Amino acid sequence: MKSIENGGTHQPSTLSDDSEPPSSTTPNEVRNKLETILSDKELPRFKRLQLASSIELKLLFHVATPAVVVYMVNYFLFMSTQIFSGHLGNLDLAAASLGNTGIQFLSYGLLLGMGSAVETLCGQAYGASKHEMLGIYLQRSTILLMLTGVPLTIIYIFSKHILILLGQSSDVASAAAIFVYGLIPQIFAYAANFPIQKFMQSQSIVAPSAYISTATLLVHLLLSWVLVYRIGLGLLGASLVLSLSWWIIVVTQFIYIVKSERCKHTWTGFSRQAFSELPNFFILSASSAVMLCLETWYFQILVLLTGLLHNPQLALDSLSICMTITGLIFMISVGFNAAASVRVSNELGAGNPKSAAFSVIIVTSISFIIGVSLAGVVMVLRHFISYAFTSGETVANAVSDLCPLLAITLILNGIQPVLSGVAVGCGWQKFVAIVNVGCYYIVGIPLGAILGFKFNFGAKGIWSGMLGGTAIQTIILLWVTYRTDWKTEVEKTKKRLDKWKVNNGPANNE
C-alpha cells in the first residue's frame, strides 16, 4: 500500500510502548494515534508495525466480532428455515432452496446493495465528526428502499410463472411459490433493516444487534417448530415465521436507536430533510445496488442453471446444502466486510490515509487465514456434513463430491468480500460493478454453462466455471487495492461529504 510508507504529514512520536488506548480515549483520538504511529519514521519499522497492529486489531475486532455474530445468527434464521423445510421432504427442500436463492435473493441483493450507500456516506461522515448527517441518510435510504419494495412484491406474487418461464419444473415451481408468498412481508423488513444496520455499524455500534439477533433466533426456532410441524402449515408456515423474525429485529433495533444515548447525536428525530435530494440519493443508491446485485445474483443464477440439469431435484438438493454451508461460513467474511467498510470509511473521513491502508492489510490477512482454515475443516467433514439437512444417502454422496469446490469457494470468500467492503468504504461501487459485469457475466456464467451442459459436468461444471469468474474478480480487486493512493481517496471523501452535506445544520425534529 503506497500510503503506509510514503506521503502524509509527519507527526513526532509521543507514544509509550503500551499501545492500549485509555478507556476515556475518544474514537477520533484512537484513529489519530494510529495515524501518528504509522507516520513516525523515528520508530523502528518493526516497532511501528507492532504498535499499529495492536491498535488496529482492537479497532477491527470491536466491529468484526459482534458483526460476525449478527450475520451468523441472521443466517441461522435462513438456514434453520431451510432445515425445517428439508425434513418435510426432498421436494420441500428443493422448493425452499429455489424460493430462497432463486427469488428471495433478488430482493436481498437489491435492497442490501441500495443500503450500502448509507454505509459509505454514514461511515465517512462519522469519521469526519459530522454526526448530524447520519440520521438524514438513514431516513432517505429507508424511504427509497420501501418504495423499491412495491415492484418486488409483484415479482413475488407471480413467482410461480416466473420460475416456470425460466425452465423450472412445475412441481418445484408451485411448491417454491407457496414458500415465496410467506416472504412478502420480509421484503419491507429488509427495506427497513439494511439502512438501520448500516447506520449503527458506521458508528461501531454492533453488539446490541448481536444480542437482538440471538434472542430473535430463539423465538424463530420455537415458532418454526410450532407452525411447521405442530400446526402443519408446512412451507408457508416456515416462510411466514422467517418474515416475522426479521420484523422483530427491525423494530427492536429502531427502539434501541431512539432510546440509546450512543445515538443521541446521530439520531435527532424524523425530519423533512429526509425527503430532499431523493432523486440524487437514488442515483447513488442505484450504483451501490448494481455492484452488490451483480454479486448476489451471480450465485442465484448458479442455482437456476442447476435447475435445468437432468435430475434437477438431486442437483438442487446437493447444491442447496453446499450453498447453505457456504452462506453460513460466508457470514464470517461478511462480518469482516462490514468491519473493513467501517474502518476504511471512518479513517478516510478522519483524513488518515495511512491508517486506511493499514486497516485493509490487516483485515484482508485475517479473513484469508480464517477462510483457508475453514476450507480444511470442510474437506475433513465432507462425508458427514449433509446429514444435518437430510437423511438421504444419495444426496450425501452428491454433496461429498461437491466439497472440493466448496473448499475453493471458502478460500476465495476469505478475500473477495473484504475487498468489496473496502470498495464500499471508499465509494468505488461503480468501478466494482463494471468489474463484476466482466468477470461474472462475460466470463463466469458462460464458462459454467459450457462446462455444465456442453461437457456434461453437471453442477460441478457450472460451479467450476463460475468460480473462475470469482477468482478473476478477486485478483483485479487485489491489484487495484494494492495500487490505491490513499491520500487521493481522503481528498475524494472530503468532496463527497461536501456534496451530500445536510443543509441548514443539524436536522430539525418534526
Automatic annotation (TrEMBL):
Transmembrane helix as UniProt keyword: yes
Compositionally biased intervals (Polar residues): 1-11
GO MF assignments: antiporter activity; xenobiotic transmembrane transporter activity
One Pfam family in the UniProt entry: MatE
Entry annotated with the keyword Transmembrane helix: yes
Membrane-spanning ranges: 59-85, 105-122, 143-166, 172-193, 205-227, 233-258, 278-298, 318-339, 360-385, 405-424, 431-455, 461-482
Membrane-related topology note: Multi-pass membrane protein
Localization annotation: Membrane
InterPro entries: MATE_euk, MATE_fam
Annotated protein name in UniProt: Protein DETOXIFICATION
